[in-house]
Design goal:
The chain is mainly β and 119 residues long. It has no helices and eleven strands.
Length: 119
């Protein structure tokens, strides 16, 4: 069964940090770009970051300098390190796989993990 599973979400105070994980089972992440997306209540889903098969990265302007995406192919896992969190980062975060970061449909999705930034 092909599956992506996110973990690492939770409640954190503004200025705090979280590291999200996206673990794959049933297929290798080595041959996929992995994107992180988020959806806040009442808002459309937005792209946060993506890492290509070759390790190239891109970020939404809203998270540049605060979030870092990385991959560990040996563990078949992609991470999203989130620092200096703000209340506006509150959302359900999803990871998804595609052949490349841009120009392709993301055809595998995880179930999401909740991130809440609040004092």
């Amino acid at each position: 069964q092909l599956q992506l599973v996110e973990s690492g979400g939770g409640l954190v105070q503004p200025g705090g940090s979280l590291r999200l994980s996206c673990a794959a089972s049933g297929f290798s992440l080595n041959y996929h770009a992995i994107g992180w997306f988020r959806q806040a209540p009442g808002k459309e889903r937005e792209g946060v970051s993506c890492i290509s098969r070759g390790g190239g990265t891109n970020y939404a302007d809203s998270v540049k300098g605060r979030f870092t995406i990385s991959r560990d192919n040996a563990k078949n896992t992609v991470y999203l390190q989130m620092n200096s969190l703000k209340p506006e980062d509150t959302a359900v975060y999803y990871c998804a796989a595609a052949p490349a970061c841009l120009g392709y449909e993301y055809n595998y999705w995880g179930q999401g993990t909740q991130v809440t930034v609040s004092s």
